[in-house]
Write a structure and sequence with these properties.
This protein has 352 residues and is α/β, with parallel strands linked by helices. The chain is built from 17 helices and five strands. It has a five-stranded parallel β-sheet with strand order 2-3-4-1-5, sandwiched between helices.
């Protein structure tokens, strides 16, 4: 069901209809797994992917310009195992003719790419300057000076950062559209931006911090307006919900959806049943045996089931039973048996 919802979102994004997705889940139940699934789905459909973990300080919705630094710095194009930097694609985009860039990007990105000759974009030193500039770590004025010293004078780099607080959210949205267009011009089908741990960001911005919450509102409202754009872009938010009875303003899930105005998909990671956990234990065991072939004969199917049942009993006793703890406990048992530090019988005796 999750995969179908994600597939539908990407189909619409490929038709240049930006999509907003909320992925919700309490700690340990599989929220990050769903976001990983989303990213894998994006890569399979040849979307570029950018993932940022919000922490309320280095990356926060309330600071859209710094947030954009994190987004731009982590863009990974199809076929790249790790982000290689935007600069590595500048020459490719220029060489491909920039048809998609002119069709979808705003005037800043088009102006930049049109005035830079191909020879400049093949110069590693120029690329280093442009990466810092496009990643917002280097102001346009300083970037122009550095390009002049490298022999490329008269390059009119537009300012990317917005100085006015109430304009920064809108500038973030505009530049996300530019990056989506840039990714398509570089050979991708579009861009997926993942903003994870939104609840952590909210924990750093309590309700009484009015200026910070106002900045959050500007950013989220601008992102909500992305639906009016014509660009292949998906923005996904990952967040745990607040506790029961908490006000909407401190519940990141409800507040983000409210400020966005809508989401195109709202996927919830749910707690697994015991039947699912038993199936999960079998799969973990098979993966473990595949990774460590000598382990295959050290634990019988009956012994695995007994250990699984022992862990399920411990799982039921937890105040907050989550699959992550169950899996880690199972891996610990498999390690002990594999290393000869315990036998299946001794593990079961200890569990009693």
């Amino acid at each position: 069901e999750h995969e179908e919802a994600f597939a539908q979102a990407f189909r619409k994004a490929e038709g240049s209809k930006p999509q907003l997705i909320m992925v919700e889940g309490a700690w340990g139940v599989g929220k990050t797994h769903l976001l990983t699934l989303l990213s894998a789905h994006a890569s399979k459909r040849r979307f570029a992917v950018s993932t940022t973990i919000l922490d309320g300080w280095a990356a926060s919705i309330s600071d859209p310009m710094r947030l954009l630094e994190s987004i731009a710095g982590s863009i990974r194009f199809p076929g790249q195992a790790v982000p290689m930097g935007i600069g590595t694609m500048l020459s490719t985009v220029k060489r491909r003719g920039m048809v998609e860039l002119r069709a979808w990007a705003g005037p800043r990105m088009v102006q930049l790419m049109e005035q830079l000759p191909q020879e400049a974009l093949d110069d590693p030193e120029v690329i280093a300057v442009l990466e810092d500039y496009l990643g917002l770590t280097l102001p346009a004025s300083q970037a122009r000076d550095q390009l002049s010293r490298l022999g490329w004078r008269g390059v009119a780099l537009p300012a990317l950062k917005a100085k006015s607080v109430d304009e920064r959210g809108q500038r973030l949205a505009e530049l996300l559209c530019d990056w989506a267009a840039f990714c398509v011009a570089g050979g991708a089908k579009g861009l997926l931006v993942v903003l994870d741990e939104v609840d952590v960001d909210y924990a750093r911005a309590p309700w009484w911090d009015t200026p910070r919450r106002t900045k959050q509102d500007y950013t989220l409202q601008a992102l909500g307006a992305l639906q009016r754009q014509d660009v292949p872009l998906v923005v996904a938010f990952g967040s745990a919900p607040a506790g029961p009875g908490e006000d909407d303003s401190v519940d990141a899930v409800r507040d983000v959806i409210k400020k966005l105005g809508h989401v195109d998909a709202h996927e919830r990671a749910v707690t697994l049943s015991e039947g699912h956990l038993i199936e999960l234990a079998d799969k973990v065991h098979d993966l473990y045996a595949d990774a460590y072939p000598e382990f295959a004969n050290k634990l019988s199917a009956d012994q695995l089931r007994s250990i699984t049942n022992m862990l399920l009993r411990a799982h039921r006793r937890q105040l907050s039973p989550v699959p992550r703890r169950f899996v880690r406990s199972l891996l610990h048992c498999l390690d002990l048996v594999d290393l000869g530090q315990a036998t299946p019988a001794s593990l079961l005796n200890a569990g009693r």
